[in-house]
Amino acid sequence: MIKLATALLLILAVGNLSRADDIDRSNPAAFVRALVNVPAGKADFARAKLAVDKFVDPSIDKAAGIAEIDSMVVTLNKMLDTLPPEAASSSMEKMKALRTFLYEGGWWNNGRQFEYDLSDPYGQKPGSQSLPNYLATRKGNCVSMPALFLILGKRLGLDVTLSTAPLHIFVKFTDDATGRTWNLETTSGAGFTRDAWYRQKMPMTDEAITNGVYLKTLSQREALSIVATPILDDLIASGRYDEAVAVADVLIEAYPANAYTLVKKGTAYYRLLDANIIQKYPRQSDIPADTIAYANDLYRANREAFAKAEALGWRDPKLN
Fold first, then answer.
1. Strand bridging mode 181-185 / 168-174
2. CA distances from 192 to 12, 79, 105, 153, 239 (A)
């Protein structure tokens, strides 16, 4: 994240994102818009996550990913069938079964439980945030681990969604019987985790919480925008800065309090300024007259994006 110092649209629904030729990398903003703008209650998070992963890595086999998720759901239902019918139908017991399925070794996962990859906790290695990588290695991070829990939870009919803390994603689970919502820390066995713990480990301002930047129980659209965020990161990493700005605007429309996206948008504007102005014209006096307005626009857009994030209560986690 860099803050400047002082000076043919896809006609897709997520439910149809199943064919290999559905991923059109030439129009990222249209792709992301189709992915997040799904009628309430109609999202298929497995297909959405795999579509995002395939956008970033075209070699990913979406059909194989869906087949593996389907197989996991079959096994989970077999586990639930071992319980008394009343228990097996309760959301709390379903959540506990899912937690056991993922984090405890047994016949249900061939003794290969899923674990937090302590060697790459933020998922910085290429491909490490993808669902297929997590399924294959059984080692994940704060992107892939909550994604799989959400996907399987939805398949079981649980009331689950995503939430965020600074540079972190976790799951919110609402118990049908009590209406109580719990934080589930999926990098640590999906254990119940208090808001206070997140605030202690990942400092955040009161304003950020009040404004829905962190610890919010996200709507479907907001959660889908979080799932789609790796596309924004990939565009910036590959130098597609104009497209990154366009995707950021779609994500911000879906989740206006997403300070991370605002910061990434500001970063994309800085990259444009650096590539098109700073590197070409080392001295301000070298900038052609017909380019000054463009340079000023990039400068203002960079500062505006960061200012909006800060107004929401965002602070650079690296400075805490």
1. antiparallel
2. 37, 22, 20, 15, 40
- Amino acid identity, position 83: L
At 65-84, the pLDDT tens digits run 999 999 999 999 999 999 99
DSSP code of residue 27: -
Residues with Cβ < 8 Å from 228, sequence gap 6 or more? 32, 35, 36, 48, 52, 247, 251
Helix (H), strand (E) counts: the chain: 13, 6
Helix or strand holding residue 34 (H, E): helix 28-36
Radius of gyration of the CA atoms of the chain, in A:
21
The percent of residues above 70 in pLDDT, for the chain, comes to: 92
pLDDT for residue 9 is more than 50: no
Higher pLDDT, 317 or 20: 317
101 SS3 class = helix
The CA-based diameter of the chain, rounded to the nearest angstrom, is: 78
d(CA 163, CA 258): 11
Sequence length of the chain is: 320
For the chain, what percentages of helix, strand and coil (3-state, to nearest 5) are there?
55, 10, 35
Q: What pTM was computed for the model?
A: 0.91
Where do the domains of the chain lie? 14-257
Note the Cα 196 to chain centre separation in Å.
22
Cβ-contact 160, 150 below 8 angstroms: yes
Question: What is the overall mean pLDDT for the chain?
Answer: 92
pLDDT in tens, 115-146: 999 998 888 888 999 999 999 999 999 999 99
Tokens 């996907």, residue located? 151
